[in-house]
Design goal:
Blueprint: H1 2-33, H2 35-43, H3 49-68, H4 77-102, H5 104-111, H6 118-140
């Protein structure tokens, strides 16, 4: 009985510590990349800072809830398509912010001596991501 309580308490402490570490890492990652301030700057929506903050917090809490619950998605395909589109937009913005901060494309184009073909390199990466995603969802996921 006591051993079970101690084991459960230890699991709670380890899980909470792991969650704090991952959460702090995500916040630091978003802060270093400056995704939200850059988004506010590009969209000229400084007056909506509280809305952006609320969206990030609510999205994190909702994602955490979905991770730990047994909810299944029995919704119309159009709703799932919109949900997938929003996920794609977020991942695309995250990847774009990371490449912008690290100046990946100019460095890669200089390294492989394609400075004058940077647009072709970027389009190859974009089409590669599109075809890879389509291949995964059409062929591998059935």
């Amino acid at each position: 009985m006591i051993l079970t309580i101690v084991t459960n308490l230890l699991q709670v402490i380890i899980g909470f510590s792991g969650g704090l570490a991952v959460g702090c890492g995500l916040v630091a990652f978003l802060t270093v990349l400056g995704i939200i301030p850059r988004l506010i700057q590009l969209s000229r929506t400084l007056h909506l800072v509280k809305v952006y903050t609320a969206c990030v917090i609510i999205g994190s809490l909702f994602g955490t809830y979905l991770s730990f619950s047994a909810i299944t998605w029995n919704h119309p395909n159009i709703l799932l398509a919109i949900w997938g589109l929003l996920h794609g937009i977020f991942n695309g913005m995250l990847a774009a912010a990371l490449t912008e901060v690290l100046n990946v494309f100019p460095l890669v184009s200089k390294r492989i001596r394609l400075e004058n073909k940077l647009i072709i390199l970027m389009m190859a990466i974009v089409f590669g991501k599109i075809f890879g995603s389509l291949f995964q969802w059409i062929i591998l996921v059935k």
